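User: I've been trying to design a sequence by hand for this structure and keep getting stuck. Would you show me what you'd pick, starting by listing the structure so we're on the same page?

Assistant: Good idea, let's start from the same input. This is the structure you sent:
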């Protein structure tokens, strides 16, 4: 009972804290790449499903993804941006399940790099100067448990961002808790990117701290007709709030999977600060290999983001 109360309280408090207590202006948050979706599965669901992270590839943005890892896995996530926006974004991850005193745990680690060269420089009067580059890299490690009903996870992260000759570092952490009511419903909430961020040339900056809470329903379609449970439908609804957002972002995602082998996904995000977003993708698992793909159109860039994930279980 205590675990149920704790899980429900975590969700309720997260949504309440995401309200009037955060008053950062839109330009006061840096390192926003740490709030981007990087795994193809999560991107296809428009970031929904915090309580239903079933792929190890999600661990770099959702610590609760460690709770679903039953086999060791390593892999990469890769984002292809539209032309003239940024270079490709690559992350690597590893998840290792183990037991300590008969307590099921998962250790995770990740690294990521984002670079962009050839940015046109301008002086204070608007005249063109020499080109410059920008890049960012991140290392992280985490630990989570694989509880049957209640589960928790935590991650520590170091990130550095450099723009031209100015750099800033951040020491951040993620925490999360989830409660699976039964095989059909799950609740979850996370606090991500909370911690310290350095200044840029004396200017105060803030990390993209965010709260997300949501519910997932799992419908065994075949069982409704008295058949073996080979088809499952996952439906998720989440609220997301970053420190510089005026109002929460509402995320919805749906996934249909066949025997955990083939999955079709679609998502929608209602964003009060930017344009709403629709995304879709597919996932395939065969033997030791898992592959996911997603696409998210971006009208502002006259194109879209392509997400690729390749995981290898061992």
């Amino acid at each position: 009972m205590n675990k149920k109360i704790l899980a429900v309280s975590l969700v309720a408090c997260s949504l309440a804290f995401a309200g009037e207590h955060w008053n950062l202006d839109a330009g006061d948050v840096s390192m926003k790449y740490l709030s981007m979706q990087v795994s193809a599965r999560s991107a296809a669901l428009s970031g929904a499903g915090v309580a239903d992270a079933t792929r190890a590839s999600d661990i770099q943005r959702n610590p609760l993804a460690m709770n679903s890892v039953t086999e060791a896995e390593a892999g990469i996530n890769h984002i292809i941006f539209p032309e003239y926006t940024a270079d490709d974004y690559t992350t690597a991850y590893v998840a290792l399940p183990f037991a300590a005193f008969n307590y099921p745990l998962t250790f995770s680690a990740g690294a990521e790099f984002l670079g962009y060269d050839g940015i046109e420089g301008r002086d204070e009067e608007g005249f063109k100067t020499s080109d410059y580059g920008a890049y960012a890299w991140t290392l992280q490690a985490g630990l989570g448990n694989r509880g049957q009903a209640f589960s928790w996870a935590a991650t520590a992260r170091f990130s550095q961002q450099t723009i031209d000759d100015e750099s800033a570092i951040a020491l951040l952490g993620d925490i999360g808790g989830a409660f699976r009511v039964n095989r059909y419903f799950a609740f979850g909430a996370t606090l991500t990117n909370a911690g310290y961020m350095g200044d840029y040339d004396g200017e105060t900056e803030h990390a993209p701290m965010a709260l997300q809470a949501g519910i997932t329903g799992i419908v065994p379609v075949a069982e409704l007709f008295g058949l073996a449970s080979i088809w499952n439908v996952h439906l998720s609804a989440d609220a997301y709030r970053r420190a510089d957002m005026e109002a929460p972002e509402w995320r919805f995602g749906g996934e249909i999977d066949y025997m955990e082998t083939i999955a079709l996904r679609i998502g929608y995000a209602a964003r009060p600060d930017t344009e709403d977003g629709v995304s879709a993708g597919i996932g395939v698992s065969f033997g030791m290999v898992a592959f996911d793909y997603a696409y998210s159109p971006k009208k502002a860039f006259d194109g879209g983001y392509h997400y690729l994930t390749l995981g290898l279980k061992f």
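That's my pick for every position. To get oriented when you compare it with your attempt: The chain has a mean pLDDT of 85. The two ends are 37 Å apart (CA to CA).
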